[in-house]
Write a structure and sequence with these properties.
alpha+beta, 6-stranded mixed beta sheet, 4-stranded antiparallel beta sheet, 23 strands, about 25% helix, about 35% strand, globular, ABC_transporter-like_ATP-bd, cell membrane, ABC-type ferric iron transporter activity
Amino acid sequence: MARITLDKLAHSYLPAPKSDDDWALKEMNHVWEDGAAYALLGPSGCGKSTLLNIISGLLAPSQGRILFDDADVTHAPTTERNIAQVFQFPVVYDTMTVRDNLAFPLRNRGRDPAYIAERVQAIARMIGMEDQLDRKARGLTADAKQKISLGRGMVRRDVNAILFDEPLTVIDPHMKWELRTQLKSLHRDFGHTMIYVTHDQTEALTFADKVVVMYDGRVVQIGTPEELFETPAHTFVGYFIGSPGMNVLPAQVDGTRAYIEGAEVPLAHGYGALSGKVEIGVRPEFARLTAGDGLPVKIRRIEDVGRHKIVRAEFFSHEINIIAREEDHIGADRTRVIFDPARVNVYADDWLVQGEAA
């Protein structure tokens, strides 16, 4: 296991990058703690796999360093980094049995046969393939092969880190939940440093101790699921985390008041003069329809999703989503929306602004 340090790390696939847009990874400085489970979360093309491949040694960064504990491994080959990596699509040896596929990393390192047999049995139990250990991998389904690939990545206990690059893409939904649970259990039992790349927020939030949200080649926030939900550091985090995501509305902010299209929204904190693009952000969970004061809205539709209702409304040309309880009656008089002042965040040029006590 290892602490992973990214020191002024950046990467471009162009030989002579000139503008900000030429960098697949913008400069970043982060320390990822030994033994923690991290999820790299973001949309396709945001730099997740590029960063993972730099950590694993499959790609050399254009600038900066990567350290495992205090050792500089920036230019060390993958074989010297003592990591395991599981890719998006299964990589197995078709001519080998499931047992031999799982045992391969341990046999390759000369481990004792009794220990290999014990570890293979334990991993096979975890991935639900105990009854297929003597089958050849050829002819197995794609999700079965991916389970073998996952198992082979986890069979070693002595790795510095285990890296997962969207490993559940080909797994059926029920088995995804089972394997995520097993990965979490493995992390608790053995304390490997784990980094899990995904664009699925459910996977990220259920797997990780901390989620690393990436956008446009940048790490825009590292936090617990609660921190990402309660206080998104960037409007993208608010948009990407949650279903539906955070309402983001252009506003003028003056002290403890925000003004949207002339309508007043109270804030729990005070703010000084703000420049640039100013917006407020509030989760649909903290918006409420009322017949009294608030922003006048037009309700476009109501979606009943079982445990709650999602109200799609419009304020001038701004879409506002509201989550109402399943038992709430939404009458014709409910034409205004109010926000919980303590849950309203203020952003300038997409970044969270810290307010002062009102």
